[in-house]
Design brief:
The protein is elongated, with a radius of gyration of 16 Å. With 142 residues, it is α/β, with parallel strands linked by helices. Strand 3, helix 2 and strand 4 form a beta-alpha-beta unit. It contains three helices and six strands, in the order ββαβαβαββ. The chain has a six-stranded mixed β-sheet with strand order 4-3-1-2-5-6. The structure holds zinc ion. Zinc ion binds next to strand 2.
């Protein structure tokens, strides 16, 4: 199987409301996602998909929704002032139903990336999301 992987990076704040230690405080990460795709067959140039297509579709969505804002859990009692401030400052908070752990964010990204890439005919089969240089979570299809 031939795959391609495009790396996308962004900066965002989050917190894990029920975390046992310091991750319950608001803090930021340089998130790095490695998005791996396959296609039923290579195109006439010999590509699964152009790297630029993944950047254009998924990278733009990330820039619009996750970069330089906060990824927070709906109902987080501490989040209201952050949400109000970011709304006023033009970077609305992204709300998740679950705690914004690397595991939940990578799963969210998998759904988003597949929806955005559907028109190109490629399938997202793997995403590794680095929350820190030493810690990552991986989503795989199936
Ligand atoms: Zn964190």
């Amino acid at each position: 199987m031939v795959t391609v992987t495009r790396r996308l990076e962004w900066d965002a704040m989050h917190r894990i409301p029920l975390h046992e230690s310091k991750c319950r405080a608001f803090h930021g990460h340089r998130y790095v996602a490695e998005i791996t795709c396959v296609a039923p067959q290579l195109d006439e140039l010999g590509r699964v998909v152009d790297f630029g297509v993944i950047k254009s579709l998924v990278g733009t969505w990330i820039d619009d929704h996750w970069d330089h804002t906060a990824i927070l859990m709906s109902g987080d009692p501490e989040a209201t002032p952050i949400a109000e401030a970011n709304e006023r400052l033009g970077r609305p908070v992204y709300w998740m139903k679950a705690h914004p752990t690397a595991e939940n964010i990578v799963s969210e990204l998998a759904g988003v990336a597949q929806r955005l890439l559907d028109p190109t005919g490629v399938t997202v089969v793997r995403i590794r999301l680095w929350e820190t240089p030493n810690g990552s979570s991986e989503w795989t299809l199936g």
